[in-house]
Design a protein that fits this description.
mainly beta, five-stranded antiparallel beta sheet, 0% helix, globular
């Protein structure tokens, strides 16, 4: 069985990130969504850490404030950040819930990690809000990714009615496409 390992000692934060790393589920980060927001954690004594998984804990009260697009970057000089993972079009359905994402291709230990939030769930939202951003080292060698499936495995929808929900078989999948393409004039709204 693989374990997730956090390394939270000797660090500083910037960009209102204190509440993201305080390990307290009753606090949250809430900042203006009128511009891109950056949150940085830097390890003391130039210590570099390798992380290949991160989790967000959604805010407790307003889904509109959830980030829907962001980038995770790393740096060893605190100035020049290298993008590790860029995520777009994500919708979180539950409040105070942990959602995890993998950066399995990251093999570099960095002394600073940066979260750049570029878009909220709803255009025009006044704030971005999260309860926590946790970084982990996950043993990818023991990772077994199940085959993609949904429950139920077949859905039937009608124009003008809410589309039934489905549950994905695995947290390892976070982007999807439809093949063949939907007919002209049809679209699926991820909200």
């Amino acid at each position: 069985d693989s374990a997730d390992n956090t390394r939270y000692w000797g660090f500083t934060t910037s960009g209102a990130a204190d509440n993201l790393f305080d390990m307290n589920p009753s606090t949250q980060m809430s900042v203006s969504a009128s511009t891109t927001q950056k949150f940085v954690i830097t390890f003391n004594d130039n210590r570099a850490e390798l992380f290949n998984k991160y989790c967000f804990v959604t805010n407790s009260n307003n889904a509109n404030y959830d980030p829907s697009e962001w980038t995770i970057s790393g740096s060893n000089d605190g100035t020049t950040f290298t993008p590790i993972k860029n995520v777009t079009d994500v919708t979180f359905d539950q409040r105070s819930f942990t959602y995890c994402f993998y950066m399995a291709t990251n093999t570099v230990a960095y002394s600073s990690y940066e979260l750049t939030i570029t878009k909220a769930r709803v255009d025009g939202a006044s704030n971005f809000a999260l309860t926590a951003w946790n970084l982990y080292l996950f043993d990818v060698n023991s990772l077994v990714v199940p085959e993609l499936s949904f429950t139920p495995n077949e859905l039937l929808g009608y124009t003008g009615y809410a589309f039934p929900s489905a549950v994905c078989s695995s947290e390892f999948y976070n982007s999807f496409s439809i093949t063949p393409e939907l007919p002209a004039g049809f679209s699926l709204n991820t909200n």
